Amino acid sequence: MNGLGARADKNEEVNKSQRGYNVRVKDLKKIHRAAAVGDVAKVQRLLLLGKDVNKRDKMKRTPLHLACTIGHADMVTLLVERKCQLNLCDRECKTPLMKAVQCQEEACVTILLEHGANPHLTDNFGNTALHYAVAGENTSIVEKLILYHANIEARNKFELT
């Protein structure tokens, strides 16, 4: 275990498939599929047809979760402009902000924070977005989270700050 509640290899590295989602396209709704591939025009059409911007898939992920994980900043901007809920949790109780941080998608992190994403929420292991930024050794994202008042004293279930 790496202190964040995830298994890590002997070098304590977390690869992209562990950080992101294992996505099975056949399990995704149309809006999730379009968000995951960054098809802004298709998501716009689906929203005009009345699709729910906060629709969840089998893993409780929203289109915003998928866009943040893959780093589609244009898609994140569209979803935010369409008033998606920024702080919904997936099955692991991770918010889109946590996933963007975990996958080191700084542009997505910035968009979310600028629009009011909550950096204080915790996942199933008590980790905040700041825990993931520190674990990923991304000082730029750490600084950004602190600028948005992330709690530097927050402890996860392993008592790590």
UniProtKB/TrEMBL annotation:
Under which name does UniProt file this protein? Ankyrin repeat domain 26
Keywords assigned = ANK repeat
Pfam name, any one: Ank_2
User: Which sections of the protein are ANK repeats?
Assistant: 59-91, 92-124, 125-157
Q: Which organism is it from?
A: Neovison vison
Top-rank taxon, per record = Eukaryota
Q: Which PROSITE patterns match?
A: ANK_REP_REGION, ANK_REPEAT
> What InterPro entries does the record point to?
Ankyrin_repeat_domain (IPR050657), Ankyrin_rpt (IPR002110), Ankyrin_rpt-contain_sf (IPR036770)
Stored Gene3D superfamilies: Ankyrin repeat-containing domain
As given in the record, the signal peptide range reads none
